[in-house]
Amino acid sequence: MTKLFTLSVDTLGSETELNDILKGLNQSLLRNLNYKFQLYGPEKIIKKKIENYKRLLKVTEIIDCDSYITMEDKPSDIVKSKKTSSMHLAIKSVTENLSDAVLSFGNTGALMSLSVLNIKTLKGIKRPAIASIWPNMKGESVVLDLGANTKLDSRYLIDNSILGASLASILFKIDNPSIGLLNVGKEDNKGKEEIKLASDCLKDLSQNFIVNYYGYIEGNDISTGRTNVVVTDGFTGNISLKTAEGTAKLFQSHLEDAFKSSILSKMGYFLSSLAMKSVRDRLDPRVHNCGILMGLNSLAVKCHGHSEFRGVSYAADIIYSLLDNNVNKKISDYVSEMHSKLTN
Amino acid sequence: MTKLFTLSVDTLGSETELNDILKGLNQSLLRNLNYKFQLYGPEKIIKKKIENYKRLLKVTEIIDCDSYITMEDKPSDIVKSKKTSSMHLAIKSVTENLSDAVLSFGNTGALMSLSVLNIKTLKGIKRPAIASIWPNMKGESVVLDLGANTKLDSRYLIDNSILGASLASILFKIDNPSIGLLNVGKEDNKGKEEIKLASDCLKDLSQNFIVNYYGYIEGNDISTGRTNVVVTDGFTGNISLKTAEGTAKLFQSHLEDAFKSSILSKMGYFLSSLAMKSVRDRLDPRVHNCGILMGLNSLAVKCHGHSEFRGVSYAADIIYSLLDNNVNKKISDYVSEMHSKLTN
């Protein structure tokens, strides 16, 4: 029997255009035939725009709402108020088993707080982390945390290692994903106390074959693909990811300027434009911009607040592939297995 | 009267080839005619290789030494032992006024410890920071700290703001360089306690026109050039810089692969190779890889452990320009002016 998956999508509270959301979901639907959608937002407007996407229209339920959480709303205020906001309703649908996962482009802190409160964390996981899939020289790696917990805490780093390894094993179909702990140097004496503590614990786990811990890695190792999983705290991860995004944009902008600088290089640009496009697609931060909230009982994914249709469709694909692989059950099993080994 | 500047160069303890050091210095000498050099390393080998660089040979004194500090040596051990190492002797030359600045490619922690101990920090500065000059969409910015102090401390962040602003004002010839504090969001409630404290203090200083504080910035703002100075702690800065370097390399590697993918794109690559080269030069981490130790009584600069001649010549150019602008006097004046305003 073919499994059907329902994704509830919060369409409000960000700069992402409704059209990009619809076009992205429609594209993903071409690849993932058993997708269904719930769209949370103003019914009248969605109904009008979705007319252009016949295929999407057939498998979509629109849940009318106007209220939304803004980027400025503080998580602490949102939990109490705005119970009818698009984000709140989309999350509730998951907790009530009316859908399998939630996708939002809005306020990350609010999505995190509402998810923790409603979907709740897996047994043994204290706080969720935000994971992202990063391109590297060898393929891709899982990097986390990208901003859920800005506090540096060895317990979070160990939880993140377990969550990241379970995600990588599902996504990349490998048995013992290697885990690297992001630090300012590879030597044992480098870094902060919390990181050393986490490293010692991961070494123990590794010696007992519970995880496959590589050791400390440095910022440039993310791109070389030194390990399948890159673990860091949410403060460092958030700033690093955004710095890398900025660098990619800077490179692209300089490249485009340079190509316009002479007739020969303009011709060169024209001749190589297809090659250029493939690089842009592979490294475009507009595509690789979804954050997977890890450690919850159901899947919640946050896309960049200013996503384009490619980013939406990439995120929808990832979610489908995770659901299709029974990600929550697997991660939950993995986490409880790790924890039972930890306590033995 | 033309001023002569002497740079003492530690040639040992890294993977940087002696030939790259000599070629780089020789290139910088073509642009900066009043440079003199002291090279610390094995006299016999240096004498043989420097024969190829007649111009450099004329203005260079070789100080024979074989002992050097390795990348594995711990800073705490080095301070006591290895008093005849190339790095130690190069630093001593600065403290004894036999040279104006020191350049090393070796162990960063050792260079920092030996510099603090011998050259000593400026009055009012608790710990030096490592600053780097980063390319951005508008030109360049000063980013610090890149790894001197991995501890997050509001006092260091404020010191770094003052040091960074003074460096930017000299390098970019601007009066009130704007300062941004790196954080995980732009809103006042974002980030850690130490950062909020530093931000409040910088706001006060800004209201009294002591500094030009912009506010919080995010990782991607480094590349857009939102502010002239980017302030962060050494842990976050080190990992971000290395992540950005890795991203630039990844982009370049994918681009080269893509250009080889078809005959048309190969032709395109050939036609646009000059344009490509200019981008590589502008964004090449092998060029922009020098860390300026800020807050010391004399200038000390650390280049990447695996530098190429372009990186060496870029670093030598920066040092010359800073010396020519009387950087130590200016920074010292700037810092004491800030501190006197702070205490008033």
Summarize the structure.
With about 350 residues, chain A is of the alpha/beta class. In chain A, about 50% of the residues lie in helices and about 15% in strands.
Percentage of residues in helical conformation of chain A: 40-55%
Largest sheet of chain A: 11 strands, mixed
CATH topology of the largest domain in chain A: Isopropylmalate Dehydrogenase
List SSEs of chain A in N-to-C order: EHEHHEHHEHEEHEHEHEHHHEEHH
Beta strands of chain A, count: 11
The greatest inter-chain interface is formed by: A-B, 64 and 64 residues
Indicate the CATH architecture of the largest domain in chain A. Answer: 3-Layer(aba) Sandwich
Question: Mind telling me the CATH superfamily name of the largest domain in chain A?
Answer: Isopropylmalate Dehydrogenase
Label the overall shape of chain A. Answer: globular
Enumerate the spans of chain A where pLDDT stays under 50 for 5 or more consecutive residues.
none
Report the span from N to C terminus of chain A: 39 Å
Rg of chain A (C-alpha, Å): 21 Å
- Please state the structural category of chain A: alpha/beta
Total of domains of chain A: 2
CATH class of the largest domain in chain A: Alpha Beta
Strand content of chain A: 15-25%
Mean pLDDT of chain A: 89
In quaternary terms, these chains amount to homodimer
How many alpha or pi helices of chain A? 14
Describe the structure.
Two copies of one chain form a homodimer. In chain A, strands 3-2-1-4-11-10-5-6-9-7-8 form an eleven-stranded mixed sheet, with helices on both faces. In chain A, helix 8 links the parallel strand 7 and strand 8. The mean pLDDT of chain A is 89. Chain A has 14 helices and eleven strands. Chain A folds into two domains: 137 residues, Isopropylmalate Dehydrogenase; 157 residues, Isopropylmalate Dehydrogenase. Chain A is α/β, with parallel strands linked by helices and 344 residues long. In chain A, helix 7 packs across helix 14. Chains A and B meet through helix 9, helix 10, helix 11 and helix 12 of A and helix 9, helix 10, helix 11 and helix 12 of B.
